[in-house]
Design a protein that fits this description.
18 strands; Beta-lactamase; alpha+beta; 2 domains; 396 residues; 5-stranded antiparallel β-sheet; Peptidoglycan synthesis regulatory factor (PBP3), Domain 2; 9 helices
């Protein structure tokens, strides 16, 4: 009997040793399955990209670098160049633009410009931003670039400046051409730069659901925004839709809630209805897991800095704007490092004038860069001041 019990115990031990690896393998399979069930958004899109605006933090991406046809989302690059021209004084909102034969011949979405018809820059930008008018886009391209071809060269040059690796433009409108392509990531970067350059003026226009042009004429024209999400999703105030048979349904959307601005892109959707529903899901996902807060308000003293050849020779370095950071909800994040760089090397300094930057890295890797200034005017020392300083340093 004793021998039988020992034999049974030995058998159980062997079975236990044999079963242990099976249990471990089962846990591994469950873990692998868990990884496979990670969030999947915009399932019907050929590509998708979701980012936080201020930092460019990527929240979600799928086939984001695949070269696809952007259709009228192309016009975001055109609008970027237009706003740069407005900001540097090359053109003004009240400038009058004369439509060429070429501009008037554009098909697709249009405001039916007649050859030699005149319209202000503001009305043409409204027509581009709200109604995606191809004729208005070409008219503005010729105004800013001299010719349509010259403007397209500017678009491709700007793409290189922005580091876009999968974008090449053939026209300003997005009308189909096999050599005219971009990707969801590049569209997101263009949108980010467009919002930065166009600022609230741009968003006031792209956030307008309907408006009129030619109001004081017999040809009053009603513009209705192609972005229906303006009325369907809280916080949406831009940015650009697109559709051709080859590109299918595309959109780049921006929305702002509780100071958190997101940019979402989908390309190659089967329909505008599916596109809009899936972009809503992307935005919902972004707002469900991320939030934004103020790390430092404008005017925060970063440090006191000595300026040996300045009068006075000390001043506080302060922030010029609120430093905002984005964080994942439920996860505590703190400042891990701070780097201050003075970019203006020569005095004088004026309080409020940008003299450098501060870059703050948070514990989760989020990076914030902002301009800095001094809190008091600093003048360079005059010759007598330098002599007296040298005298004191030598004798005192």
């Amino acid at each position: 009997m004793k021998k039988l019990m020992i034999s049974l115990l030995s058998l159980l031990v062997c079975l236990g040793m044999y079963m242990a690896p099976l249990h471990a393998e089962s846990e591994k399979e469950e873990s692998a399955e868990g990884e496979e069930t990670a969030v999947e958004l915009a399932k019907n899109a050929k590509a998708a990209y979701l980012m936080e605006y201020s930092s460019g933090k990527v929240i979600y991406a799928h086939n984001e670098t695949e070269k696809l046809y952007p259709a009228s989302m192309t016009k975001m690059m055109g609008l970027l160049l237009i706003y740069e021209s407005l900001n540097n004084g090359k053109i003004t909102w009240d400038d009058v633009v004369t439509a060429s034969e070429h501009a008037s011949s554009m098909g697709g979405s249009q405001i039916f410009l007649e050859p030699n018809e005149t319209m202000t820059v503001r009305d043409l930008v409204k027509a581009i931003s709200i109604a995606s008018a191809n004729d208005a886009m070409v008219a503005m391209a010729e105004k800013v670039g001299g010719t349509h071809e010259g403007f397209v060269d500017m678009m491709n040059k700007k793409a290189k400046e922005l580091g876009l690796e999968n974008t090449h433009f053939v026209n300003a409108t997005g009308l189909h051409d096999p050599e005219h392509y971009s990707c969801a990531k590049d569209m997101g970067i263009i949108a980010q730069e467009l919002i930065r350059v166009g600022d609230q003026d741009l968003l006031d226009i792209t956030g307008t659901y309907d408006a009129y042009i030619r109001e004081d004429s017999d040809h009053k024209f009603w513009l209705v925004n192609t972005n229906k999400l303006l009325k369907q999703y809280e916080g949406v105030d831009g940015l650009k839709t697109g559709f051709t048979q080859e590109a299918m349904s595309c959109i780049t959307v921006t929305a702002k809630r509780d100071n958190l601005r997101l940019i979402a892109v989908v390309m190659g959707e089967p329909s505008s209805k599916v596109r809009n529903e899936e972009i809503k899901q992307m935005l919902d996902y972004g707002y469900s897991i991320y939030a934004q807060d103020t790390l430092m308000p404008a005017g925060t003293v970063l440090e006191e800095r000595l300026f040996e050849n300045g009068k006075p020779n000390k001043a506080n370095l302060v922030t010029t704007e609120d430093l905002m950071y984005v964080y994942e909800k439920g996860k505590q994040t703190t400042e891990s490092s701070r780097d201050i760089v003075i970019t203006k090397k020569e005095l004088p300094y004026t309080a409020g004038e940008v003299i450098g930057t501060v870059t703050v890295t948070m514990s989760d890797g989020f990076v914030i860069t902002s301009d800095i200034t001094v809190d008091t005017d600093i003048q360079p020392l005059e010759y007598l001041d330098i002599f007296m300083k040298a005298f004191q340093d030598f004798f005192l």
